[in-house]
Amino acid sequence: MSNKNIVLTGDRPTGCLHLGHYVGSLKSRVELQNSNNDCYIMIADIQALSDNFDNPEKVKLNVVEVCKDYISVGIDPEKCTIFIQSLIPALTEITMYYMNLVSVSRLERNPTVKAELQQKKFADSVTAGFLCYPVSQAADITAFKATTVPVGEDQLPLIELTNEIVRRFNRIYHTDILKETDARLSNVQRLVGIDGKAKASKSLNNAIFMNDDKETLKNKVYSMYTDPKHLKVSDPGQVEGNVVFTYLDAFHNNKEEVEDLKNKYRKGGLGDTTIKSLLNQTLQDMLAPIREKRAEISHEYIMDILQTGSKKANIIANETLQQVRDAIGIVYY
Ligand code: ATP
Ligand code: MG
Predict the structure, then answer these.
(1) CATH architecture assigned to 214-293
(2) How large is the angle between the packed helices 133-143 and 299-328, nearest 10 degrees?
(3) Span 5-192+299-328: which CATH code?
(4) How far is the CA of 201 from the centre of ligand 2 (A)?
(5) How confident is the model at residue 202 (pLDDT cuts 50, 70, 90)?
Protein backbone atom coordinates (compact mmCIF):
# COMPACT_ATOMS: atom_id res chain seq x y z
CA MET A 1 0.00 0.00 0.00
CA SER A 2 1.24 3.50 -0.76
CA ASN A 3 1.84 5.74 2.23
CA LYS A 4 1.16 8.93 0.29
CA ASN A 5 -1.11 11.50 1.86
CA ILE A 6 -4.41 11.90 0.10
CA VAL A 7 -5.26 15.58 0.00
CA LEU A 8 -8.70 16.90 -0.87
CA THR A 9 -9.68 20.54 -1.04
CA GLY A 10 -12.32 22.49 -2.81
CA ASP A 11 -13.94 25.80 -3.48
CA ARG A 12 -17.45 26.97 -4.11
CA PRO A 13 -17.77 28.48 -7.60
CA THR A 14 -19.52 31.57 -6.27
CA GLY A 15 -16.94 34.02 -7.58
CA CYS A 16 -13.28 34.32 -8.48
CA LEU A 17 -10.77 33.41 -5.80
CA HIS A 18 -9.33 36.05 -3.52
CA LEU A 19 -6.30 36.68 -1.34
CA GLY A 20 -7.95 34.81 1.55
CA HIS A 21 -7.96 31.69 -0.62
CA TYR A 22 -4.39 32.36 -1.65
CA VAL A 23 -2.93 32.44 1.86
CA GLY A 24 -5.55 30.21 3.47
CA SER A 25 -5.47 27.32 1.05
CA LEU A 26 -4.03 27.72 -2.48
CA LYS A 27 -0.42 28.19 -1.36
CA SER A 28 -0.62 24.98 0.72
CA ARG A 29 -2.07 23.13 -2.24
CA VAL A 30 0.88 24.08 -4.44
CA GLU A 31 3.31 22.93 -1.72
CA LEU A 32 1.42 19.68 -1.22
CA GLN A 33 1.23 18.85 -4.94
CA ASN A 34 5.00 19.31 -5.14
CA SER A 35 5.72 16.93 -2.27
CA ASN A 36 4.42 13.71 -3.74
CA ASN A 37 0.89 13.63 -2.37
CA ASP A 38 -2.26 12.42 -4.11
CA CYS A 39 -4.12 15.71 -4.57
CA TYR A 40 -7.78 16.15 -5.46
CA ILE A 41 -9.36 19.55 -5.95
CA MET A 42 -13.12 19.77 -6.21
CA ILE A 43 -15.11 22.65 -7.59
CA ALA A 44 -18.22 22.38 -5.46
CA ASP A 45 -20.98 23.48 -7.82
CA ILE A 46 -23.73 21.52 -6.04
CA GLN A 47 -22.70 23.10 -2.75
CA ALA A 48 -22.66 26.55 -4.37
CA LEU A 49 -26.20 25.99 -5.61
CA SER A 50 -27.38 25.44 -2.03
CA ASP A 51 -27.43 29.21 -1.54
CA ASN A 52 -27.41 30.21 -5.23
CA PHE A 53 -30.12 27.89 -6.58
CA ASP A 54 -31.82 30.88 -8.17
CA ASN A 55 -28.65 31.84 -10.03
CA PRO A 56 -27.24 28.72 -11.73
CA GLU A 57 -25.66 30.81 -14.49
CA LYS A 58 -23.38 32.44 -11.93
CA VAL A 59 -22.31 29.06 -10.59
CA LYS A 60 -21.63 27.61 -14.05
CA LEU A 61 -19.59 30.61 -15.12
CA ASN A 62 -17.51 30.54 -11.96
CA VAL A 63 -16.60 26.86 -12.34
CA VAL A 64 -14.39 27.96 -15.23
CA GLU A 65 -13.15 31.11 -13.47
CA VAL A 66 -12.13 29.21 -10.33
CA CYS A 67 -10.26 26.63 -12.40
CA LYS A 68 -8.45 29.46 -14.18
CA ASP A 69 -7.45 30.83 -10.78
CA TYR A 70 -6.00 27.44 -9.85
CA ILE A 71 -3.83 27.23 -12.93
CA SER A 72 -2.71 30.84 -12.66
CA VAL A 73 -1.36 30.37 -9.09
CA GLY A 74 0.59 27.28 -10.07
CA ILE A 75 -1.69 24.34 -9.43
CA ASP A 76 -0.57 21.72 -11.91
CA PRO A 77 -3.30 19.58 -13.52
CA GLU A 78 -0.67 16.89 -14.16
CA LYS A 79 -0.12 16.59 -10.40
CA CYS A 80 -3.66 17.28 -9.11
CA THR A 81 -7.00 15.82 -10.12
CA ILE A 82 -9.29 18.81 -10.60
CA PHE A 83 -12.96 17.92 -10.96
CA ILE A 84 -16.53 19.21 -10.84
CA GLN A 85 -18.73 17.95 -8.00
CA SER A 86 -21.89 17.51 -10.10
CA LEU A 87 -20.05 15.24 -12.56
CA ILE A 88 -19.49 12.69 -9.77
CA PRO A 89 -22.94 11.14 -9.04
CA ALA A 90 -21.52 8.74 -6.41
CA LEU A 91 -21.00 11.73 -4.10
CA THR A 92 -24.72 12.45 -4.05
CA GLU A 93 -25.63 8.85 -3.24
CA ILE A 94 -23.07 8.68 -0.42
CA THR A 95 -24.51 11.95 0.93
CA MET A 96 -27.94 10.33 1.18
CA TYR A 97 -26.58 7.46 3.30
CA TYR A 98 -24.75 9.89 5.61
CA MET A 99 -27.88 12.03 6.09
CA ASN A 100 -29.22 9.31 8.38
CA LEU A 101 -26.21 9.64 10.65
CA VAL A 102 -26.62 13.33 11.58
CA SER A 103 -29.43 14.99 13.48
CA VAL A 104 -30.98 18.21 12.23
CA SER A 105 -30.18 19.92 15.53
CA ARG A 106 -26.52 18.90 15.20
CA LEU A 107 -26.43 20.62 11.81
CA GLU A 108 -28.18 23.71 13.15
CA ARG A 109 -25.70 23.91 16.03
CA ASN A 110 -22.63 23.66 13.80
CA PRO A 111 -20.67 26.93 14.28
CA THR A 112 -19.83 27.28 10.56
CA VAL A 113 -23.45 26.78 9.53
CA LYS A 114 -24.65 29.12 12.30
CA ALA A 115 -22.32 31.92 11.14
CA GLU A 116 -23.33 31.45 7.51
CA LEU A 117 -27.03 31.41 8.33
CA GLN A 118 -26.62 34.74 10.06
CA GLN A 119 -24.53 36.20 7.26
CA LYS A 120 -26.87 35.03 4.51
CA LYS A 121 -29.97 36.24 6.35
CA PHE A 122 -32.08 33.16 5.61
CA ALA A 123 -34.32 34.17 8.55
CA ASP A 124 -36.71 31.24 9.13
CA SER A 125 -36.55 29.94 5.61
CA VAL A 126 -33.29 28.02 5.52
CA THR A 127 -33.55 25.31 2.89
CA ALA A 128 -32.90 21.64 3.59
CA GLY A 129 -30.23 21.79 0.89
CA PHE A 130 -28.25 24.50 2.65
CA LEU A 131 -28.59 22.95 6.09
CA CYS A 132 -27.31 19.63 4.75
CA TYR A 133 -24.34 20.83 2.69
CA PRO A 134 -21.92 19.81 5.48
CA VAL A 135 -23.13 16.23 5.02
CA SER A 136 -22.33 16.37 1.32
CA GLN A 137 -18.93 17.82 2.22
CA ALA A 138 -18.36 14.75 4.41
CA ALA A 139 -19.23 12.58 1.42
CA ASP A 140 -16.75 14.48 -0.76
CA ILE A 141 -13.92 14.11 1.74
CA THR A 142 -14.51 10.46 2.54
CA ALA A 143 -15.20 9.34 -1.04
CA PHE A 144 -11.56 10.11 -1.81
CA LYS A 145 -10.37 8.75 1.58
CA ALA A 146 -8.68 12.10 2.14
CA THR A 147 -6.15 12.07 4.96
CA THR A 148 -5.49 15.82 4.80
CA VAL A 149 -7.83 18.69 4.05
CA PRO A 150 -6.16 22.13 3.79
CA VAL A 151 -8.74 24.69 4.87
CA GLY A 152 -9.24 28.09 6.41
CA GLU A 153 -10.28 28.33 10.05
CA ASP A 154 -13.96 28.78 9.15
CA GLN A 155 -14.09 25.17 7.96
CA LEU A 156 -12.83 23.43 11.12
CA PRO A 157 -16.27 22.58 12.57
CA LEU A 158 -17.18 20.98 9.24
CA ILE A 159 -14.13 18.72 9.32
CA GLU A 160 -15.06 17.75 12.87
CA LEU A 161 -18.55 16.84 11.64
CA THR A 162 -17.03 14.72 8.87
CA ASN A 163 -15.04 12.78 11.43
CA GLU A 164 -18.15 12.28 13.56
CA ILE A 165 -19.92 10.80 10.54
CA VAL A 166 -16.93 8.55 9.82
CA ARG A 167 -16.92 7.21 13.40
CA ARG A 168 -20.69 6.66 13.40
CA PHE A 169 -20.67 4.95 10.03
CA ASN A 170 -17.84 2.59 10.98
CA ARG A 171 -19.46 1.80 14.34
CA ILE A 172 -23.00 1.21 13.07
CA TYR A 173 -21.99 -0.85 10.04
CA HIS A 174 -19.09 -2.66 11.75
CA THR A 175 -16.49 -1.58 9.27
CA ASP A 176 -13.33 0.47 9.02
CA ILE A 177 -13.59 1.51 5.39
CA LEU A 178 -14.01 5.20 6.18
CA LYS A 179 -11.00 7.12 7.40
CA GLU A 180 -10.88 10.15 9.66
CA THR A 181 -9.19 13.18 8.18
CA ASP A 182 -6.93 15.97 9.44
CA ALA A 183 -7.60 19.62 8.75
CA ARG A 184 -4.43 21.44 7.72
CA LEU A 185 -4.41 25.12 8.60
CA SER A 186 -2.00 27.50 6.93
CA ASN A 187 -0.20 30.18 8.94
CA VAL A 188 -2.87 32.71 7.89
CA GLN A 189 -5.98 30.85 8.95
CA ARG A 190 -8.45 33.63 8.29
CA LEU A 191 -7.66 36.70 6.25
CA VAL A 192 -9.87 39.65 7.24
CA GLY A 193 -11.85 41.59 4.66
CA ILE A 194 -10.67 45.00 3.42
CA ASP A 195 -13.53 46.48 5.48
CA GLY A 196 -12.04 44.96 8.65
CA LYS A 197 -14.83 42.36 8.83
CA ALA A 198 -13.90 39.00 10.24
CA LYS A 199 -13.35 37.19 6.94
CA ALA A 200 -12.62 38.17 3.38
CA SER A 201 -15.29 36.36 1.41
CA LYS A 202 -16.63 36.22 -2.12
CA SER A 203 -20.15 36.62 -0.85
CA LEU A 204 -19.41 39.63 1.38
CA ASN A 205 -17.76 41.53 -1.46
CA ASN A 206 -14.93 42.64 0.79
CA ALA A 207 -12.07 40.77 -0.82
CA ILE A 208 -9.17 41.51 -3.15
CA PHE A 209 -9.51 39.06 -6.01
CA MET A 210 -6.45 37.55 -7.60
CA ASN A 211 -7.58 38.78 -10.99
CA ASP A 212 -8.43 42.33 -9.92
CA ASP A 213 -6.83 44.72 -12.40
CA LYS A 214 -4.11 47.15 -11.29
CA GLU A 215 -6.48 50.05 -10.75
CA THR A 216 -9.10 48.04 -8.82
CA LEU A 217 -6.37 46.57 -6.63
CA LYS A 218 -4.98 50.03 -5.87
CA ASN A 219 -8.44 51.43 -5.08
CA LYS A 220 -9.17 48.54 -2.74
CA VAL A 221 -5.87 48.98 -0.90
CA TYR A 222 -6.45 52.72 -0.52
CA SER A 223 -10.00 52.13 0.79
CA MET A 224 -8.80 49.72 3.49
CA TYR A 225 -9.90 50.11 7.06
CA THR A 226 -7.05 51.43 9.23
CA ASP A 227 -7.30 53.18 12.60
CA PRO A 228 -10.21 55.64 12.60
CA LYS A 229 -8.53 57.63 15.43
CA HIS A 230 -5.31 58.11 13.44
CA LEU A 231 -6.29 61.43 11.88
CA LYS A 232 -3.00 63.30 11.50
CA VAL A 233 0.29 61.72 10.42
CA SER A 234 1.76 62.76 13.78
CA ASP A 235 -0.98 60.95 15.78
CA PRO A 236 -0.04 57.64 17.39
CA GLY A 237 -1.86 54.87 15.52
CA GLN A 238 -3.16 51.42 16.34
CA VAL A 239 -1.69 48.44 14.52
CA GLU A 240 -3.99 45.74 15.93
CA GLY A 241 -7.13 45.49 13.80
CA ASN A 242 -5.54 47.75 11.19
CA VAL A 243 -6.20 45.91 7.92
CA VAL A 244 -3.17 47.35 6.10
CA PHE A 245 -0.83 45.87 8.71
CA THR A 246 -2.72 42.58 8.73
CA TYR A 247 -2.17 42.31 4.97
CA LEU A 248 1.47 43.42 5.24
CA ASP A 249 1.98 40.66 7.80
CA ALA A 250 0.42 38.16 5.41
CA PHE A 251 2.03 39.24 2.15
CA HIS A 252 5.17 41.35 2.69
CA ASN A 253 8.29 39.21 2.65
CA ASN A 254 10.48 41.51 4.74
CA LYS A 255 9.11 40.93 8.25
CA GLU A 256 11.72 43.24 9.85
CA GLU A 257 10.60 46.15 7.69
CA VAL A 258 6.99 45.53 8.70
CA GLU A 259 7.95 45.45 12.41
CA ASP A 260 9.84 48.77 12.01
CA LEU A 261 6.83 50.35 10.34
CA LYS A 262 4.53 49.09 13.08
CA ASN A 263 6.75 50.69 15.73
CA LYS A 264 6.79 54.02 13.89
CA TYR A 265 3.04 53.92 13.34
CA ARG A 266 2.42 53.24 17.04
CA LYS A 267 4.63 56.18 18.06
CA GLY A 268 3.14 58.60 15.54
CA GLY A 269 4.78 60.09 12.46
CA LEU A 270 3.79 57.53 9.87
CA GLY A 271 0.84 58.24 7.57
CA ASP A 272 -1.72 55.80 6.21
CA THR A 273 -0.74 56.74 2.66
CA THR A 274 2.81 55.49 3.19
CA ILE A 275 1.76 52.07 4.47
CA LYS A 276 -0.96 51.76 1.83
CA SER A 277 1.51 52.59 -0.90
CA LEU A 278 3.89 49.88 0.34
CA LEU A 279 1.07 47.33 0.51
CA ASN A 280 -0.15 48.30 -2.96
CA GLN A 281 3.34 47.75 -4.38
CA THR A 282 3.71 44.42 -2.56
CA LEU A 283 0.41 43.11 -3.88
CA GLN A 284 0.94 44.49 -7.40
CA ASP A 285 4.30 42.66 -7.57
CA MET A 286 2.78 39.46 -6.27
CA LEU A 287 -0.31 39.48 -8.48
CA ALA A 288 1.19 40.71 -11.77
CA PRO A 289 2.59 37.31 -12.86
CA ILE A 290 -0.60 35.54 -11.72
CA ARG A 291 -2.72 38.00 -13.75
CA GLU A 292 -0.48 37.56 -16.81
CA LYS A 293 -0.61 33.79 -16.64
CA ARG A 294 -4.38 33.89 -16.25
CA ALA A 295 -4.81 35.99 -19.38
CA GLU A 296 -3.14 33.27 -21.46
CA ILE A 297 -5.39 30.41 -20.34
CA SER A 298 -8.00 29.33 -22.88
CA HIS A 299 -11.52 28.11 -22.15
CA GLU A 300 -10.82 24.88 -24.07
CA TYR A 301 -7.78 24.11 -21.93
CA ILE A 302 -9.85 24.52 -18.75
CA MET A 303 -12.68 22.32 -20.07
CA ASP A 304 -10.15 19.66 -20.97
CA ILE A 305 -8.65 19.70 -17.44
CA LEU A 306 -12.10 19.43 -15.88
CA GLN A 307 -13.25 16.57 -18.12
CA THR A 308 -10.08 14.56 -17.57
CA GLY A 309 -10.07 15.18 -13.82
CA SER A 310 -13.76 14.33 -13.43
CA LYS A 311 -13.30 11.02 -15.26
CA LYS A 312 -10.53 10.03 -12.87
CA ALA A 313 -12.47 11.23 -9.81
CA ASN A 314 -15.48 9.16 -10.87
CA ILE A 315 -13.47 5.96 -10.77
CA ILE A 316 -12.29 6.58 -7.19
CA ALA A 317 -15.67 7.79 -5.89
CA ASN A 318 -17.46 4.79 -7.45
CA GLU A 319 -15.09 2.42 -5.68
CA THR A 320 -15.86 4.03 -2.33
CA LEU A 321 -19.59 4.02 -3.09
CA GLN A 322 -19.40 0.29 -3.69
CA GLN A 323 -17.64 -0.18 -0.34
CA VAL A 324 -20.26 1.98 1.37
CA ARG A 325 -23.13 -0.06 -0.10
CA ASP A 326 -21.36 -3.29 0.84
CA ALA A 327 -20.82 -2.08 4.41
CA ILE A 328 -24.47 -1.09 4.81
CA GLY A 329 -25.49 -4.36 3.21
CA ILE A 330 -27.66 -3.13 0.39
CA VAL A 331 -26.19 -5.22 -2.38
CA TYR A 332 -28.66 -6.83 -4.80
CA TYR A 333 -26.70 -9.17 -6.99
P1 ATP B 1 -18.42 32.08 -0.10
O2 ATP B 1 -18.55 33.48 0.42
O3 ATP B 1 -19.18 31.81 -1.35
O4 ATP B 1 -18.62 31.02 0.97
P5 ATP B 1 -15.58 31.99 0.38
O6 ATP B 1 -14.88 33.24 0.07
O7 ATP B 1 -15.91 31.68 1.82
O8 ATP B 1 -16.88 31.97 -0.53
P9 ATP B 1 -15.12 29.18 -0.13
O10 ATP B 1 -15.18 28.65 -1.52
O11 ATP B 1 -16.29 28.96 0.77
O12 ATP B 1 -14.78 30.75 -0.21
O13 ATP B 1 -13.82 28.61 0.63
C14 ATP B 1 -12.83 27.82 0.01
C15 ATP B 1 -11.65 27.60 0.94
O16 ATP B 1 -10.96 28.83 1.18
C17 ATP B 1 -12.02 27.09 2.33
O18 ATP B 1 -11.03 26.18 2.73
C19 ATP B 1 -12.00 28.30 3.20
O20 ATP B 1 -11.71 28.00 4.54
C21 ATP B 1 -10.85 29.10 2.57
N22 ATP B 1 -11.07 30.54 2.78
C23 ATP B 1 -12.08 31.28 2.30
N24 ATP B 1 -11.98 32.57 2.72
C25 ATP B 1 -10.86 32.63 3.48
C26 ATP B 1 -10.20 33.67 4.21
N27 ATP B 1 -10.69 34.91 4.23
N28 ATP B 1 -9.06 33.39 4.88
C29 ATP B 1 -8.54 32.12 4.88
N30 ATP B 1 -9.11 31.09 4.20
C31 ATP B 1 -10.26 31.33 3.52
MG1 MG C 1 -17.25 30.00 2.30
Answers:
(1) Orthogonal Bundle (1.10)
(2) 90
(3) 3.40.50.620
(4) 7
(5) confident
